[in-house]
């Protein structure tokens, strides 16, 4: 895009890329939270099994 020299197109592409990056980071954060929740649940279940 930069080779074309169209500043409006460059800005639009940069904005779209930044938006996609932000959405990806948000999803990563959500998945990380889900993983931590699942790990905590698993640890709790493992504790129940060994307590019997």
TrEMBL record:
Keywords: Coiled coil. Residues 21-48 form a coiled coil. The keyword Coiled coil applies. It comes from the Bacteria. The keyword Coiled coil applies. This is Uncharacterized protein.
């Amino acid at each position: 895009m930069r080779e074309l020299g169209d500043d409006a197109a460059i800005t639009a592409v940069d904005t779209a890329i930044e938006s996609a990056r932000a959405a990806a980071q948000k999803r990563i954060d959500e998945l990380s939270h889900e993983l931590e929740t699942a790990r905590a649940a698993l640890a709790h279940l493992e504790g129940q099994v060994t307590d019997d």
